[in-house]
Amino acid sequence: MKSLKDTIEFKGTKDGFIIVINNEADYEEARKNLIDKINSNLFFFKGSQFCDIYATNLNEKEKLDLINFLKEKYNINFSKKEKPIINKLSSDTMYYNTNGEKPTKFIKNTIRSGAFVEYEGNIVVLGDVNPGAQLIADGNIVVMGVLRGIAHAGSKGDESAFVSAIKLNPIQLRISSVIAISPDDDTYSSNSLPQIAFVHDGHIVIENYPTKI
Prior knowledge:
Largest sheet: 8 strands, mixed
CATH architecture of the largest domain: 3 Solenoid
Helix content: 10-25%
Distance between the termini: 34 Å
Structural class: alpha/beta
CATH topology of the largest domain: Pectate Lyase C-like
Number of helices: 4
Oligomer: single chain
Number of strands: 17
Radius of gyration: 17 Å
Order of helices and strands: HEEHHEHEEEEEEEEEEEEEE
Strand order of the largest sheet: 5-6-7-9-11-13-16-17
């Protein structure tokens, strides 16, 4: 049996999360591992917006059963959207695109100190971003872990871009040309909720990420 990490993945889009289930997983394995993975980050996923299940090994009835189960047990909202294009290019990086939207680069590992990642689109990190690492995107930046490095979203002047993380503790945040430096106290690290940073009235504002989109 494949590990939990290999069986279930979550891909973030502007319309919500897409659940990607490994092609070799059957219904029972997928259901069990999906429950385990959501329970491990219940505060983040409960009440969140989802838009699809991508699983070529499951039939439509099995997918619908999973959707109904998630709605009932976790108050998860499903809003079916046009199917995306998912291109797997390597074991650690995936690129995701929808018609008319910016492409998204998925990085399936922790970004280590000294690493530099720049992308013309959105960046989603399925791991942590360590101090000394730097992310630059002309779209949004989402970190499904702890953000401790430098993040620059909307790098080509898009002030509507945002940066979000399960734990937001960056050395520096930049959105378009607006910059925020990490405070000397533990303002970021003391917060146990996912957070989102965006520009409002010319300043970067940080708020707890809403559980419902």
